[in-house]
Amino acid sequence: MEIHEDGFELKGWVLDHSDGRRLDEYDRWAGGVSFPPPRPAPFIAEQMRIETDSDFRFWTDQNEGRVMESQIWGYYDEAKRHESSNPNGGSRLQVSASFISAMLDGLNRDLIIEVQIERRRRYQPYESGEKDDDERIKTIAKLYLLGKDGKLRTI
């Protein structure tokens, strides 16, 4: 979803391959947790001179200060072991505000932030789970722009 046009460039800076779990997909004890976790793109790590541990969990700067932390979580439910989705699992990349500010300044860029809220109805065991689309709770999304000047705006 990157765009490279004259006068405009949209470039992703976080890698997240949590959808393709590879061998972990067949591990019944994995609880929906996959590897590797979300992490900065290589060009960000190089530009900002940050390094990580072998698990891609903690990212530190030149002063050994922690600037990012990648987290993944899941839940193993024996009763639902045959279901492919795990609504109790997830991942996130937490980044310090000072790092974001330094990154945007160093790259001379602004940051587009998309926030999505997806709610799912929890069905009882005796319900089929296949209801009309009218009953489906709509996903809500909002876009924000964090400028290199530090101001947050809605788009």
From TrEMBL:
Determine the domain of life of the protein's source.
Bacteria
Any idea what this protein is called?
Answer: Uncharacterized protein
Q: What is the lineage of its organism?
A: Bacteria, Pseudomonadati, Pseudomonadota, Betaproteobacteria, Burkholderiales
